[in-house]
Amino acid sequence: MRCYAQAILDSGIPQDNHVVVSGIGCSGRVAGYMKIDSYHTTHGRAIPFAVGLKLANPELTVTVFSGDGDLAAIGGNHLIHAARRNVDISVICANNFNYGMTGGQLGPTTPFGARTTTSPYGSPELPFNLPYLLAASGANFVARWTTIHVRQLKRDILYMFSKPGFSFVEVLVPCPVGFGKMNFIDEGLDEMLLYKERCVIADGIPIDELGIDLRTDQPIYVGRFIDRDLAPYRPVRLEDIE
Amino acid sequence: MTSSGVLTGKHFFQGDEACAEGAIAAGCRFFGGYPITPSTEIAERLAHRFPEIGGVFIQMEDEMGSMAAVLGASAAGARAMTATSGPGFSLMMENIGLAVMMELPCVVVNVQRGSPSTGLPTLPGQSEVMQARWGSHGDYGLAAFSPWSPQEMFDLTIHSFNVADRYRIPILLMADEVVGHMVERVVIPREDQITRWERKRPDPNNKDAFEPFLAEDPDLVPPLAYAGEGYRVHFTGLTHDELGYPDMSAETHHRLVTRLVEKINYNSEKIVQTEDHFMDDARIVVVSYGSTARSARRAVKDARQEGIPVGFLRLVSLWPFPTNQIRELADHVDSFIVAEMNLGQMALEVERHVRRPVTGVHHAGGAMMAPDRILDAIREVANTGYTHLR
Lengths: 242, 390
Description:
- The structure holds two protein chains of two kinds.
- By secondary structure, chain A is α/β, with parallel strands linked by helices.
- Chain A is built from ten helices and eight strands.
- Chain A has a single domain, classed as Thiamin diphosphate (ThDP)-binding fold, Pyr/PP domains (Rossmann fold).
- Chain A has an eight-stranded mixed β-sheet, sandwiched between helices.
- In chain A, strand 1, helix 2 and strand 2 form a beta-alpha-beta unit.
- The longest helix of chain A is centred in the middle third of the chain and has 13 residues.
- Chain A starts with a helix and ends with a helix.
- Chain B is of the alpha/beta class.
- Chain B folds into three domains: 185 residues, 3-Layer(aba) Sandwich (Rossmann fold); 68 residues, no CATH class; 109 residues, 3-Layer(aba) Sandwich (Rossmann fold), CATH 3.40.50.920.
- Helix content of chain B is 39%, strand content 21%.
């Protein structure tokens, strides 16, 4: 959130033109913490709400700030379709690998085998590789960072403001209470150290290799994975037809 | 056609097309929707018409996204609309509740088909009347209208935008398949003769002190600030205080929910619309709405030919319910008949308001109700000598 706030200050775009939209969850509350126009919507619906805002007033710089459960599970359909349409909004997805606000349940990004309160014997499901999903869906910009990569994260959020089309950054965030303690990561700081030890900056790495399993010794790849210029969505105008 | 897109003149329109033209005439410039029979022609016509007048048409991935996009557009200041039918209406319910809570004006058209579930996609129904009132979770108030002709699809669409703007509520335009697909003459007035009610807006010279959910006027409607205007507003579906920020106290919750409900109660006389005929000598009143009201009017006329003193009351607005009108009528008449294309929804509401016998003429949907059925009911009630049936 600090990176987002700093990016707003550095953007040169008047603060009154920045709008943040969030869904439900821990990161959904971000809308209430920002002193800009902010909309805290229903669970999963932040993206279509943001699409309506942006299309009704293209002057606005619209950012969706929400979690992996909100964006990729209950809101998953909206996520892929907004990326496919390439609507000019930015999405910051805080991924903590579980539903934290409700007390640590299985989510769409929970690694296979990880324990949560609703997967007490280990998750039997394969998780989403979010950058892979977004790249396949048609987003113009896809990146992943963690809460220790503050400079890179701020830089990329700033870049997303001016990047036409749909941009998406996944931010790995510690959730020591909901996810960590059931998976042998005691404190938030321990997860930060884990990021520090295992993260490998790998811009442009094949996106199908971006799956994450916090419990193994596999590297966690971070960086910018997609930066392309597919045509962004714009409403049909008569002059385009004639 | 004027530059604003208003198609002034006489037309031969389907109800769904008339609705789309009504939206354009009302200044609607955002439509987010998902195709569903029998409402699809509204989306199709706006997809065709919006590019020439600068409107935004977007076909969303589902009805939850449609409703959310409409609210986002409304938050940015647009007059925004969606159109659907039963299954989609169910999917929109959660965000209709968000519209109530955020007090974002918008119009949701429901061209009703046979329900429940997938039901009868191509055939009429009127069985979402109670869902319109209570379908989203919680206590709240909103308004719903019921057009009975293509002309009224046009007129009430404009009126729906006006009422939505005036009271900052979602409006449910509860049409049915008969009215949506029927083709009739529709007269569109000159643009300067179309009434548009303005939204209540905050004082731009007092941005820092603005409290977005503080209703200072007796009508309980706070002014509406749009995204990007510099008011730095916060809107949430959580229980919020006058500043708009979450407050989880029982007191704030009670204050907010009470205001949202009382906002409709206080203004209900201005929202309620009914039409009546032959009331002077009426001992029996037939209450109906939407396409069924066309059959009901025929039946009432035929019954009067037979010398039965029967009157006709059409509910143009379904919600808020016309409590005062119905109670006043009950002082003068002996019996009510409610004709509707469901198994008894508005009949319950009429029963709840009057101490007079209420006879229902009901059909689950799938075909427009025949006037004969209503006429039979009128004769039967008349033969009892207007005494109380129960």
